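User: Second chain of the day. Same drill as before.
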Amino acid sequence: MWAVNSTIEVDGEGFLRFDPDGPDRDCGDFDTHAEAQAFFEAAGGPTTDRHRLDGDRDGVVCESLP
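Assistant: Same format as last time:
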């Protein structure tokens, strides 16, 4: 598991569910916007967006998630 920034709690323990360097993920893989955003940032953020989570390139991913 990958640790995330301590200001973002993803699974209640501060860890991502998915490996940012692992297989391709999309918004449907995440339960919340915060989880998707933490994953996006751990995967390189807007400079890489290799998982193509930020369709409008505003730095905010999966905006339809709660």
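The chain has one domain: 1-66.

User: Great, on to the next one.
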